[in-house]
Write a structure and sequence with these properties.
- Helices cover about 50% and strands about 5% of the residues.
- It has about 300 residues and is mostly helical.
- The strands form two sheets. The chain has a three-stranded antiparallel sheet, covered by helices on one side. It has a two-stranded antiparallel sheet with strand order 3-4.
- The longest helix has 20 residues.
Amino acid sequence: MLNDTKKTDLFHSYYKKWIIVYKEGAIRPVTMAKYRMTHAWLERLVPDLMICDLDRITYQQLLNTYALDHERQTTMDFHHQLKGAIADAVDEGLIDRDPTRKAIIKGKTPRIKKPKYLNQFELHTLLTTLNLQDEVSWDWLILLIAKTGLRFSEALALTPSDFDFGHQILTVNKTWNYKDNNGFSPTKNQSSIRKIQLDWQTIIQFSQLTKDLHPNKPIFVRENQKIYNSTVNDILARHCKQANVPIISIHGLRHTHASLLLFAGVSIASVARRLGHASMTTTQKIYLHIIQELENADIDIVMRSLSGLS
């Protein structure tokens, strides 16, 4: 498909071919959707730009125009999604020099971020508002994510057979494709396949809750039920208001879980494994503000210890 590409072809047409050849089927649908969105922006911003005219100035102008309506991190993502295709175009002789070299990433001032996680007292207060009856409900899913740090799609895919009640272990090895209503899907990455230790209270609760359910069918998804992330977020928001704590999203419960572990002194490596991160670098990047806060506390401890030696 790319073999017949000419220097005078439109850049956005080349990029569309490139993502079909190199990305389609090799990445998750949600990631593929981001590449397609980048292609849509190319059609909008540089509809007439030919490959041979892509130099450092035109590329920087493209980034600058995109950055007018996007924050810096989003512009950075846009830049990274283009770099691979442009590098291949350079290798194929379609572009003389790499126009992305020394590119300057700009962007709008970030919006004021909503709270992403709760502290221990806020989480405890929130959980006391849950209505945990004898039947499966979204309140039970909220409790489980708070206790495990699961991704929303991972929690939806859980079946009774994923619980090892005797050893207090929960196995995560699949997700539920709720966006396309297509049933079970692979995990985000290989590292996301993991075993999570559960506390005895959660084990007892879920052993009772799932005892009469089909062992290999999702606990939280009824047959032919369309799931919306917003539905559960709305339920969680109502509980947050009832508890008088900051309103967070269902993914914010995952951040809350990780934050509490870090503040409790759990190592970054253990938190990364429990969350299913591909590397500790991911964990460090997401929770940098917490890690820095803990390091400041460690410095105080070190200074007090050293001062006692004189």
